[in-house]
Write a structure and sequence with these properties.
Elements: E1 4-9, E2 19-22, E3 29-30, E4 36-37, E5 50-57, E6 70-73, E7 81-85, E8 90-96, E9 101-105
Parallel strand pairs: 1-7
Antiparallel strand pairs: 2-5, 2-8, 3-4, 5-6, 6-9, 7-8
């Protein structure tokens, strides 16, 4: 359960080059096999960037992503959430600086995809560094 600073009804607007995002995952993960891995708050699997869905962009933001796209946000570079009560659904909205966005996608990223995550044995990185070395 997230702690919200405020609760609002209606909509919010981003200012400057800021980005408002929703749908950030902070809880448990579900593996492809259906196993549930509870949230460890960075204790075991480490800290990592998270994906969020763009709710709004400030007028000075010239980046190529649009409202509805998904952005990968550098770890810890978001604010606490504000609960936005809407007719369709309640949204947790967070503010992000444009400089903290690492990547973007038109489609929702695969559930459970986390940069820097480990294999189940806890020893091997998901990315083999030798693949980036020119021989």
């Amino acid at each position: 359960m997230s702690i919200h600073y405020k609760k609002f009804k209606g909509s919010l607007t981003a200012i400057g080059n800021r980005v408002l995002v929703t749908h950030m995952d902070f809880g448990e993960q579900r593996t492809a096999g259906g196993l549930i891995i509870s949230s460890d708050d960075g204790q075991t699997r480490g800290i990592y960037p998270r994906w969020g869905k763009v709710y709004d962009k400030g007028p000075k933001n010239d980046d190529p992503y649009e409202i509805g796209h998904w952005v990968l946000i550098e770890h810890g570079r978001w604010t606490r959430s504000v609960l936005l009560e809407q007719e369709e659904e309640d949204l947790e909205v967070r503010m992000v600086e444009a400089e903290s966005i690492l990547a973007w996608s038109n489609e929702q990223p695969e559930t459970g995809l986390r940069i820097g995550a480990e294999f189940s044995d806890g020893e091997h990185a998901t990315i083999d560094p030798s693949k980036f070395v020119n021989v």
